[in-house]
Every structure is written in C-alpha cells, then in structure tokens.
Amino acid sequence: MALPPVHHHTGLETSGGATRVARLLLEGLGRYEVDASLSFELAERADVMAIPPEDFGARLPEGAVAHVHCTGDWPALLGAIPTGAKVVVTLHDCELFTGGCPYPLDCPIAEDGCASPCPRNFPDADALRKRKLAEIQRLDPVLAAPSRWLARLAKTHLLRPVRVIPNGIPWPADLRAKAEARKLLGIHPAARVALFAAHGGMNAAYKSGDTWQELWERLKKALPDLVCFAVGGDREERRDDFILWPYVDRDKLALLMGASDVLLYPTRADNHSLVVLEAMAAGLPVVAYAVGGIPEQIVDRMTGMLVPPGDREQFVAAALSVLSSRSLVRQMGQEAFLSGRRKFSVERMIGDYARLYASL
C-alpha cells in the first residue's frame, strides 16, 4: 500500500507508554518503506529531535502526517499545526478532552464537563478543555484510541468518531521456563511469587501504589512462602519478603515476570496498559480492578481475575485463588500468552496504523 511520510511526536524521550508505542511504530513502519521520524518535547540526548509544542507546526516535515501521541501543552501544539494538515492523534489517556486530568475518575467531566472550581485544582480547567475542543474542530484530525472504553469517552466529549486500535508489543515465540528465570534471579524454585509493577512504584497514585504493601501483608498471612516484588519506584529495599526494586529496563522486567506467578495490578484508572500486555507475553496471569480498558485485555477467570474497582477484600481473595493453585497459574498463564499473541502483537498494531495512514 502507498503510505505518506509520518512524523510521530511525543512528550518524554525515555519513559511512558505513549513514547514506547511511538517508537514501536517508528521501527515497524520500515517494512512499509515509510519515511518516518520522531520528535520529543523533553529529550535527554543531543542526537534526538526536540521540538517545543509551540514550534511543532513550523518544524513538521513537508507533506508528512503529524501523528501526535502526547504533549505537555495540547493547545500550544495543536494551535501550531496549520489548518489543512493531515493529523492523527492517538489518545493514550483522557487529557485531550479534560481540563488537565489524565483520568477524571469521579469528576463530573464524565457527564457534563469540568466542575468549577476544579476539584483537583487545575487552573481554568473548563476554559482549557474548550480551547482543546476548538483546535480539534479546526484541524479535523483522525482520532485513535487503544481501548473501546476510551474511544467512547472521547467520542462523547470531542464530538467526532474515534477509531479503536489496541496497543501491541513484540511477542516472544515461546514462553521462558519459570525455573530458568528463577535461577537467574536467585529465587527458590518452590516459592510463590507475586509482582506489582508501575512507573512510580509505591508512589504511583493511579496504580494504588499506596496499597501495595497492605495487600501483600494480607496475602502473606495466608501464604507464608509468598515472596513479592514491587517494581518501578526510586529505591531498592527489602522488607522481609517484600522486595522493592527501582525502575528496571524491559529485559529485566520480562525476566522478573517470567519468574513470577501473578501480576497484581490494582489500578484505579487505565486505558490499555502495556504492563498488562508484557505480563501476558510472559505467560503471567493478572489480577486487576475492572476499570477503563483493562477488561478488554484480561478475560476474567481465563487469563486472569477481574475485581470490582477499589474492592480490596475481593482483590485479595482473587489473588489468593490464583496463587493457591499452581495448575491455575500455568493454565491462565498459557491462555494469556496464546490469546495475547493473537490480539496484541506489534505486527497487528503496525498494520492497523498503516491502513489508517493509507486512508489519508
């Protein structure tokens, strides 16, 4: 198929799901011989393209599709793009149609716009939301969202159609042997191992990081041989069998997932989590609150367990039901690996976006 040149733009160079998706698309579009490029607003290396939001339009390669993933200033970035440009926006959270919240949770934005004053203290929240909407109406971009949940919300507030293109990641050909992964990490072969993982670790508000240790302590009472890793914070520490790890690279996280029995993911809000996909690619069942797009990733009682949002009692009970049965861990993990490979491969995601670009 004939595809136009594509320029991807995101906020941070080194972290975040939006940046990873942009990088995966940049790499994968090579097979379609697409002239693709990528810029950031905050770059840590001198050899990458750094473009402030207000300069984006002037530095957009001529004739290129502007594919925007995230920004620190939506009105400035959108306002810098000339009318008539070909624009694709992937919504990785809700910020494009809120007054500043990545996820509004119980905010009235879900029904009738921003509350005044903003309960989360974003300044001029409703005015900001209206400025974003005006730019969307002017540019008439193609909108995409990784989950049907976010697509429905965006369609309601941005008053236009939203295509659903689920996230995808590279999928291994086979599952790594758990015994091998545990040997490399020095974990006893007979231990039961649970894993929490989120950027920010126990300070990750949307991921309920402040509840991780309490949840583990309740699980530990029922399963004395339980070991738990909490990954993604800013320090390394051991509290009995509760082990805190700072942010680790993707290979190390995949190794740890391969050694674990379950990913505990008590997220309060989410779109289409790459951490969940990485767990599935490692053959790891996931126990999570049924929020946002998570039920579009996890099939309850087949690839993991879904729990009513915020219900810690049921979360602990669901985690215990998985951790107490090694056969259930194997069965759910195998199904997660196989179903995820069918639905969430990076090749499928790249193909979906390639067809979107071709339609322009």
TrEMBL record:
Its EC number is 2.4.1.250. SUPFAM superfamilies: UDP-Glycosyltransferase/glycogen phosphorylase. One of its GO terms (molecular function) is D-inositol-3-phosphate glycosyltransferase activity. It is an enzyme of class 2 (transferase). Keywords: Glycosyltransferase, Transferase. It comes from the Bacteria. Pfam families: Glyco_trans_1_4. This is D-inositol 3-phosphate glycosyltransferase. It comes from Pseudodesulfovibrio hydrargyri. The gene is mshA_1.
